[in-house]
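Researcher: Next entry in the queue.
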Amino acid sequence: MHQSIVRLDNPCALADFLRITLGLSSQERVSALVDRVFHRMDDHTKQTMFSFFKKKPPPAPAVAPLAETGASPASLTPTPPSPAPPRFPGPGNGGSLIGSALVIPIDIPEPPAAPPERQKWVDKLKASLGKTAGSISGVFGGSVIDEALYESLEDALLMADTGVPATQYLLTELRRKVKDSGVTHPIALKNILIALLTELLQPLQKPLVIGEHRPTVIMVAGVNGAGKTTSIGKLTRHLSEHGASVLLAAADTFRAAAREQLSIWADRNLVEIISQEGGDPAAVSFDAVSAGKARGKDVVLIDTAGRLPTQLHLMEELKKIKRVIQKAGDSPVAAGLTQGNPSHSIGMPPHEILLVIDGNTGQNALTQVRAFDDALTLTGLIITKLDGTAKGGVIAAIARERPVPVYFIGVGEKLEELETFNAREFAQALLG
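Model: Structure for this entry, 432 residues:
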């Protein structure tokens, strides 16, 4: 059968097709049929054209046939996106694993950003303790926490002059916290150790209070060469810069160089000094306290002669100086000046007894703290020379066995290199 193709969009062709196929002879009827066909085509074309101005629904996503994907019907059910891993606060960033989601975070409060000058000093502290920090942090370079790691850590802490009691305490607490938290990565272990050391050192972080008594009498002691006179000079500069009037007392009357050195610091800082060549140290101290009260000074700093704690007769001399200073507070001169003016109450001096210790002496520093504390009842420490070969861990030993507050630590000879002690800063510098 012959099939012909008719173009429906041509009216003449459509008319001929209807006339032949349907056998229509009436031209009017053929024309009517042609008109009806084209009328319907116009309606459909208009409807299709207007549909482009309506918002089209989004196309349905194509679903691959099960036979091609090999997936089960259950696997085609959309699943909610997995939640993002929580972000934990950590003690540091900088690309390390500390505080990241790769290890269990340890709750170590993040300190506020340090001022630029303080941060500069912290960087010096880290550089000074860099050798010790490198030895300790190297213990955490593995991937598992095992007994060998604990043994290596114990050796590193002991080599850092931490001492047996403090080391045993830190390791015992470390094992307990690891067991409780279930951490498995050595970096997380280091996090815990930083927190433990910070907690151990926290009682030593106390400020030196000036102004409660006027004058505030500060007696400074220490062994030969620890840096007493230099520390007094730096402390004088800090006090003067903060508006406090200072009077120095050269109670090291037997060493001429000590008096001269203290006089140089007095000239640099534009402060007065009480000095007497060959005099009795206790008498010089008494005169200094009386003069400080009479002149309305805020602080009286008394420099005593260096001595070893094994020199018992010199330790007795220190006790005598303390007793005489106490009598200066009860003297008629002091009582007369205080009468009617409570704000000038001198109280019972000395109000602060500071021991200056050399950070390079290791465990011997702890021996000095014990001896001087037994003799004088220390109120604070100044730890110097941490910029040399000092390992720094002795502060942990002091915190564990004789927790005397550490007011200042020094990392060099410059004035700005004597700063207040901060437990967290020191723990991070020591552990790396």
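Model: Residues 95 and 102 are 12 Å apart (CA to CA).
Researcher: Noted, moving on.
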